[in-house]
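Bench notes, afternoon.
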Amino acid sequence: MTDYMTKEEVLRMLKAVDIVTNDTICLQVQASFVSKVLGGMQTIIESCMELLSQNGCMIVPTFTLNCLDPVITKQYPWEDWKLIRKEMHGYKPSLSLSSPFANQFLKYEEVQRSKHPVYSFAYWGGYRKTCLDWMGDYPISFEEGLMDKDVKSVLLGETCENSYLLYAVAKQAGLGTTFLQRAKVQRVKTSVFKTFFQLSLNAEEKQKCLSLCQKKSYIWKDCTIYSLSLNKMD
């Protein structure tokens, strides 16, 4: 058996965790997983597109934490905050960089990116167009970022505890702690910042959210793929 995954193996893994045509998936991919795939990120993306078809939907997180105000990140001493705020670039869907996998996904012509200055998502396929304009509170939710309660979180080399689906589940279930964030959305003569609410989850709350989900897994050598989906909630 080869030490690398072919496109056929990637498709087999997706099907093994119950990903089918017309599904909506949110895809998170670790670099260690990509290194095992022949054709790398492009093979993963195009395998998902082929399986889902245009009536399905592929969502990829394209987060830009570097747009957060320095008062939030605490990366710089407070005496430098004024300068940092002046010099930092505001969020632009067409320019702001994210993870390598997200940046690769954004190169596809039919992929569109939402406007949230920190927690943006990129969409391909049959997505709800109103998601692209969302810049408000609780951006990782079924109402907006993840779009639908039927979405499946697909984790390639990533742990279930790090699934962004858990934040949408927490919002639905009334779990987690609400906190305020602030991000730069525009760099002009006068900088423009946006404030919004977000959820934080501790380890216990993440486990509670996981207990509300169905989990499927498939192992290929030392690589594991998971899918998580919300159990039906009242």
